[in-house]
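Training component of the fellowship. As part of building independent skills, the fellow (R.M.) carried out the full modelling exercise for a liganded target. The chosen ligand was phenylalanine. The inputs are recorded below so that the supervisory panel can assess the work.
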Amino acid sequence: MNENLDHILSEAKNHVSSAPTKEELERLRVHYVGKKGVITSLLHQLKDLPAEKRKEMGARLNDVKVNVEKVLKLRQSELSRKDLEEQLANAPALDLTLPGQYSTSTGSLHPITRVMEEFIQIMKRIGFSVATGPEVELDYYNFEALNTPEHHPARDMQDTFYIEPPILLRSHTSPVQIRAMKNKKPPLQLIAPGKVYRADYDMTHVPMFHQIEGLMVDEHISFADLKGVLHYLVKGLFGARPLRFRPSYFPFTEPSAEVDMQCISCRGSGRDCRVCKSTGWLEIGGCGMVHPNVFRHVGYDPDKVSGFAFGMGMERIAMLKYGIDDIRSFFENDLRMLEQFSC
Ligand code: PHE
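Fellow's submitted model of the complex:
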């Protein structure tokens, strides 16, 4: 029996350590130490041996069993490592250029912000500095000091929201003219970008929009200076285009004009043009020479200084620049629209 056991052990070691697959290894485990395996059956037969032999044989058999289990375990881990190595060798090399599983989207500037930034940069280049004023404004700055007293019919064009009279939401950036001039003696050369409010809502009007005001005051400033600056500005924003100054009315400028730019779509022909409604021209803002009464309000002498002012709606500029039809789309925050402006 002892010799037989030696034989079983060496045979098991041989077979197990050279088992080529995990399946074969499992077959060998069942064969030797499974419920009906060779070694298990021998253990069962121990009870038939005489008592003195039983003890010695028991210890011996157990020893063999432990040894066989040890080699089984060893071979098991060898085969596992071999499997892993094969898998790694056959797997495609890791491709670091593949897109990740999770992506983060990058934000971008709102088209209105972009247009305003561009506008500001263009104007800074010719010496205009940026001034700001409050959006919650006093009637005095928004109307009164701009030569628009109470009951003036021009107030109807700029119907705004009242917090509690005389406090209102500014209906244009022109009150910054007053604040700036009250703060500083001429010469003055500034732009005032910001939000303004009006009680309007349709395809081309929203209750909150953005304007940039321009103001230049010095001795001998003329309408020619105004034209020169606007030509320069439009050239920077859209490329050189003819401008047209249509006589108009604002209480705080005299003379006043609406500025039209030659249509960027039909180039002035007006033929079947949806953009300019076949007029050949696009209105881009209001302007004029600062009214003497405005100078008087801020303590400037209208006989000594003169100046021009203009105001432009940024939504209007952005709509023309990017071909957007509906002003409301700027504020709906639809990513399909906004993502077109990411850079
Ligand atoms: N404030 C005027 C408006 O909002 C525009 C304007 C500004 C006109 C400056 C003339 C001079 O309609």
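The panel noted the following from the submitted structure. The beta strands are 129-130, 136-138, 162-164, 167-169, 188-197, 208-218, 243-250, 253-262, 281-290, 306-313. The first helix runs from residue 2 to 17.
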